[in-house]
Amino acid sequence: MPAKELKTILTGGELQIVKAQYDAIAMGKLLSLTLTTQYPPISPYLAAIGKELYPEFKGKPPGPLPAANRERCLVALLASRSRRLELAIHLYLALVNGVDPEELAHILLTPCIYTGVDTIGAAFGVMQGTLEKLNALAKLNTADPTTVLQELAKIFPG
């Protein structure tokens, strides 16, 4: 089953490096900049989105929906929509928030059963590419959010 294969790409040691180098506040700033550059009309709404869905980006405690659960939902949604870069980013966010690769593979499989075999293949391809890139960055000790986002954008151009 693909879950067993995918879970071996990013080992415990490399995953710990990725988690250790993650900075939620830096990630929030990077995503805000990216979103306002790509979609200028969203700018006035980012604060409300951040407050409700991403409090950790401002150093605040989680709200009613913990980050790991939020990312589980978003990974499933983005996989079903074939949004490659966005899926890669949210796979990364899920990993740093404690969702393990094996669970992520099952999360990808669930909505893709209903959206078609092509979305299953595409979602697993994005997960494989994301895990391989995170593994490589961890081995180079360069898994900070800026580098991760830049490298994921190279693999999955908008």
General description of the model:
The protein is mainly alpha-helical and 158 residues long. The radius of gyration is 15 Å and the shape is globular. α6 packs across α8. The longest helix is centred in the last third of the chain and has 23 residues. It has one domain. It is built from nine helices and no strands. Helices cover 73% and strands 0% of the residues.
SSE blueprint and pairings:
Blueprint: H1 2-7, H2 12-21, H3 24-38, H4 46-53, H5 67-81, H6 84-96, H7 101-115, H8 117-139, H9 145-155
Provide a concise account of the structure shown.
This protein is mainly α. Helices cover 73% and strands 0% of the residues.
- Beta-strand residue fraction: under 5%
* Distance between the amino and carboxyl termini: 30 Å
Number of helices: 9
From the helix content, strand content and strand pairing, which structural class follows? Answer: mainly alpha
Number of strands: 0
Order of helices and strands: HHHHHHHHH
Radius of gyration: 15 Å
Uncertain segments of ≥5 residues (pLDDT<50)?
none
How much helicity do the residues have? over 70%
Approximate shape: globular
Key traits:
158 residues; mainly alpha; 9 helices; globular
